[in-house]
Design brief:
This protein has helices spanning about 15-20, 35-45, 80-90, 105-130, 160-175, 200-210, 230-240, 260-270, 295-305, 310-325, and strands at about 25-30, 50-55, 70-75, 95, 135-140, 185-190, 190-195, 215-220, 225, 225-230, 245-250, 260, 275-280. The protein is α/β, with parallel strands linked by helices. The chain has a domain at about 15-195 and about 225-255 and about 295-310: Rossmann fold. Helix 1 (about 15-20) packs across helix 7 (about 230-240) and helix 8 crosses helix 10 (about 310-325). It is globular, with a radius of gyration of 19 Å.
Length: about 350
């Protein structure tokens, strides 16, 4: 994982603060998820003292080989006692609150509301109690409604999904709490892709179709997203740890949108593989939209963050990673986490 060299930051106050804060303990929620695992691995590579809060039933396959280097605290984000124990033991300078449950059925939607909203309340309270210097929370592009024009941070929120509604509510809770607690930064992530991505998502499905020489079920044409590589997302999070704004929101996207068929075309050009497509065979979902892309100019201006991967470079890097890690195709069930 490539991160900015925080040893060469004499002329950048934000990166100096990030380097200083990341020398202390860091607590990560949602560490076993796709984005969380990439963040954890990048922090470990920098020598950070990383604590993670892991649900008792979590599949730890993304962190299996680095578990011995982590301080693992077991507990659900809605379990106030367990979460407080993690704060009490870790005494973090920085908290990266990345817990993001998923699902579409009724039970999943209820769990999303409970975990995202109540989890945000718990984290805000404990950040205040334990004098955490900086809280970074992952938001979502689904807090916005679809739009033909680039989405700015001050675009009115109009979530159309349970996930988007929960993330918008949590963001408002955290930003309001910033009047009383340490500085808070919400990063609204657009369509993140890259190593350790869940196998049911589009790019791993494309890789699988190429590997197995099987047809790829696609949606009807015209569904577009702003694709941002996970290494760029990690870079944004590292930079955000050095911020000092009281209550900040940044879009983390490239500013470009691509349809699903564009992504398949790019994969074919980049890898030389050919994919048989079953257009319209994959059902539309409530998250699908004709247009959804970020205006990332605020992150560039304040954080100095500019995505380094265009779509072709990101696909090439991700494809090479999948080829080098064939064992992850099985998403092996990890051993139960051990309480720190």
């Amino acid at each position: 994982m490539s991160l900015p060299d925080l040893t060469l930051v004499d002329d950048d106050p934000l990166l100096r603060r990030a380097a200083d804060r990341l020398q202390g303990p860091v607590l990560v929620t949602g560490a076993t998820g796709f984005v969380g695992a990439n963040v954890v691995r990048a922090l470990l590579d920098r020598g950070a003292d990383v604590h993670v809060l892991v649900r008792p039933t979590s599949n730890v396959w993304r962190l299996q080989d680095v578990m011995s280097r982590l301080h693992v605290h077991v507990g659900d984000i809605t379990d106030d006692e367990r979460v407080e124990r993690a704060f009490s033991l870790s005494r973090p300078r920085v908290v990266l609150h990345l817990s993001t449950p998923r699902g579409d059925d009724h039970e999943a939607r209820r769990r999303i509301q409970d975990e995202v909203v109540l989890g945000a309340q718990t984290v805000a309270r404990l950040v205040s109690k334990y004098s955490v210097e900086r809280l970074i929370a992952s938001g979502s592009s689904l807090e916005y409604g679809p739009s033909r024009i680039p989405l700015k941070e001050d675009t009115p929120l109009a979530p159309t999904t349970a996930h988007g509604l929960a993330k918008a509510t949590a963001a408002m809770l955290l930003l309001q709490a910033a009047t009383e607690i340490s500085t808070v930064c919400v990063l609204r992530l657009f369509h993140v892709y890259g190593p350790w991505e869940s196998l049911h998502r589009l790019l791993p499905s494309i890789v699988r179709a190429a590997h197995d020489n099987t047809p790829l079920a696609l949606t009807v044409p015209g569904i577009r997203r702003d694709w941002v590589h996970v290494e760029d997302v990690v870079d944004a999070m590292v930079r955000a740890t050095g911020g000092d704004g009281r209550a900040e929101v940044f879009n983390v996207g490239t500013g470009f949108e691509y349809s699903n068929e564009d992504v398949v075309d790019c994969f074919e050009r980049t890898t030389g593989q050919r994919i048989e497509r079953l257009t319209g065979a994959f059902p539309a979902r409530v998250t699908d939209a004709a247009h959804r892309r970020a205006d990332p100019s605020r992150a560039a201006e304040i954080l100095g963050w500019v995505p380094r991967h265009d779509l072709a470079a990101g696909i090439r890097r991700t494809f090479e990673w999948w080829q080098a890690h064939p064992a992850v195709w099985s998403e092996p069930r990890g051993a139960p986490p051990v309480v720190c």
